[in-house]
Amino acid sequence: MKMILDERGKKYILKEGQEFQSDLGIVTAEALLDAKIGDEVKSHLDHSFKIIKPNVNDFIDLMDRRCSILINKDIGTVLVHTGLGAGSRVVDAGTGAGAIALHFANVVGEKGHVFTYEIRKDFAEVAKKNIDSFGIDNVDVKNRDIKEGIDEDNIDLIFLDLPKPYEIFEDVYDSLNLGGYLVVYSPYVNQAEISYRVAKKLNFYNIEILETLERGMEVKQNGTRPKTRMVGHSGYLLFARKL
Ligand SMILES: C[S@@+](CC[C@H](N)C(=O)[O-])C[C@H]1O[C@@H](n2cnc3c(N)ncnc32)[C@H](O)[C@@H]1O
Questions:
Q1: CATH code at 14?
Q2: From the alpha carbon of 101, which atom of ligand 1 is closest?
Q3: Ligand 1 pocket: which of 118, 147, 148 to mutate (most atoms <8 Å of CB)?
Q4: What CATH number does residue 136 fall under?
């Protein structure tokens, strides 16, 4: 897969065998076919474009998405706090457009696997298309209600981003490896609180609720300071471990 970057830093995913068009001109399909990663190509209006290999973040920024997606500050917190690594097995629900599923797949690599459940057929199809386009084959997108049961066992991480996640914590416990993590993403603190109490009752260990705040800086002529605008809230993350 190739990405094209214009002189303003705007990026686009290239469609195989097709010409590229933007307000900065047209790059022919032939020129793009010959271009390798790192090459520069010109449009008919003489603007320059660079050919880049997209990483998982570039791809997620540009992929088809029909619902809200998890943002990097929260995805990063999940990856680091669970110590996810090559070879891990992950269950994820709901998939949505597949943002965190793609990050899980990227980290667990060829020896690991991601099983992602999505109740809506249309979303499951979009996610499958996105995951296939990214060119990985360590993800199964399952068009299923995860509340009807988790098929997999020997799982290192089960990540739930859906209403009333605590309804399936018993099932989650059974599917997890010893040392495995349950992580729940909740936009509301009361959902996170119920999840905490249910996880405690079921004998999960190391239960904690985290909120990640991220503030960007701007560098200006007069000085450097935090940006005026920031993401004020996305969600709470509950971590619980089977030990
Ligand atoms: C906010 S979106 C998920 C975003 C996604 N986790 C990401 O990485 O961007 C929530 C998704 O959960 C799905 N969902 C809700 N209940 C579900 C269930 N019981 N089983 C599977 N998917 C479910 C919804 O259809 C929706 O697509």
A1: 3.10.330.20
A2: 8
A3: 118
A4: 3.40.50.150
In angstroms, the CA 120 to CA 143 distance is: 7
Ligand 1, atom 26, residue with closest C-alpha: 96
Q: Identify whether the C-beta of residue 234 lies closer than 8 Å to the C-beta of residue 71.
A: yes
Of 95, 157, 234, which is best to mutate to test ligand 1, by the most ligand atoms within 8 angstroms of its C-beta? 95
Are 42 and 91 in the same domain?
no
Say whether both 68 and 45 belong to one domain.
Answer: no
Residues 30 and 109 in one domain: no
Give the model confidence (pLDDT) of 59-73 as tens digits: 999 999 888 999 999
Residue 12, CA distances (Å) to 21, 32, 43, 170, 202 in order: 10, 13, 14, 43, 47
> Which residue is closest in CA terms to ligand 1's atom 1?
68
The pLDDT tens digits of the residues spanning 24-76 come to 999 999 999 999 999 999 999 999 999 999 999 999 999 998 889 999 999 99
